[in-house]
Amino acid sequence: SRPLIIGLLLALVAVIACGGSQPPAEKPAPAPPPKPITELTREMHEQLGKVTIVQHAVIRGDLETAAVPAKWMADHQEVAGFPASTASYVADMKKFAANVAGARDIKGAATATTMMISYCGGCHVAAKVTPAFPDLPKPTWTKGTAAHMLEHQWAVDLMYQGLAGPSDELWKKGVEALRAAPLSAKELPKH
After folding, report:
1. What Cα–Cα distance (Å) separates residue 121 from each residue in 33, 107, 183?
2. What is the mean pLDDT of each run of 10 residues along the chain (191 residues)?
3. Are 96 and 116 in contact (CB under 8 A)?
4. Contact 178, 152 (CB under 8 A)
């Protein structure tokens, strides 16, 4: 009986050491290397940063801050390599960026900013490019004026992505978010 137990233990050790009766697991395929960052990619990231600064400044009513990146966009010479189909969109985007830079009131700056962002979206369609925007989580606050304002900002950010993408889905999601979080007159800040 003792040799039988030793034999079973040795067999068990051998099975464990060899990984059991299952074949070895296949190694997963290596992940593809990240796409190289090109001059065009850098250019688009820089422009996105400038447009975002303009958008946020206009939302705050800060014409002075909006004017600086808007002027840069209006005067900036893009790097070579953009598809020819995008030239008219770039020209219109620059025209509206100049309008933001020279705006004398928030309504004019807001209208020009919206047009500038919509031409970004038109350019993306003409270039057959779909930008990858980050997911925007819905704010978690649920009560009070601050919660409403955070929901409004979230909605505006969704609409921004909808214009710049362009994406009808994101635009509509933003519109619905604004509709779902109305502020009554008594909840508005007093000046």
Report:
1. 28, 21, 30
2. 48 46 63 69 89 94 97 90 91 96 96 95 93 89 80 91 94 90 69 60
3. yes
4. yes
